[in-house]
Amino acid sequence: MKSVKSVYMMTDLEGVAGVDDWDPRHTDYANEAKGVYERSEMQRLLTGEVNAAAEGLFKAGVEEVLINDAHGAGRTILPEELIPGVRIARGRNRPNWLLGISRRFDALVQVGMHAMGYTPNACLAHSMSRGIRYRANGREIGEMGMAACLAGQLGIPWVFTSGDLHACRESETWAPGIVTAPVKEGLSDLCAVHLPPADARNLIRERVQEAVQKAGQIAPVTIQGPVVIEVQREEPWPAKLREGAERIDAFTVRYTGKHFWQAFHHATYGKPDLPLPE
């Protein structure tokens, strides 16, 4: 069995223990959140869970950890608080979603994950943004599944998820055998029962080591091409669509590609010809 030496870590904010409201980086949310919490608190909580995952990976023998600061504008993790030895991909104007991904990685882990939009009782559930549903070849897919399919196309298995219990259950439907660390249980869109940060980090640190040991038993997540991605919104799509998009009805558009990487980047970045990484 091939040993796991290089790990790609996808991160998000809404699945972190202690986070149960939307990121107040936008003015409206910032005004609403004033006096309740500051964004810096959310950033510290996320960074703590990312560090715990990295510590567990290094303890399990992993030599390279690349962290994708994937929430929002890509500037949520606090770089100065990261443990030594990791690297972080962050920032705006991204050439693709999984910054720095390549076939050299042996496993994908996802930290701070939320469930897909419209999941009952899930905390802060959404898919790319609120009020949107994605389907790939007819199957509803959220952000975790999207990342897993992109990595899976490069032969990289999705071996670990931490986040809302509802997200952990969702991940199990995509990647049988995956190891999960539920650090909170959503009760509604803005409510959850949380582990304290110290307990959440201990759980992540422990479970991600188990995931490394099981990596060889978990198959990459793939969707057989050609791939059709449908994007359905609560608001009607504008009259002018992205080039190559097919309007299904007022609320739904469709993108078709020879594989998931192509269809996804057409739908989300307007880049249907983006080459697969080597």
UniProtKB/TrEMBL annotation:
Gene3D superfamilies: Dipeptide transport protein
Listed transmembrane segments: none
InterPro entries (alphabetical): DppA_N, Peptidase_M55, Peptidase_M55_sf
UniProt name for this protein: Peptidase M55
One Pfam family named in its UniProt record: Peptidase_M55
Domain of life: Bacteria
Signal peptide: none
Lineage, opening ranks: Bacteria, Candidatus Handelsmaniibacteriota
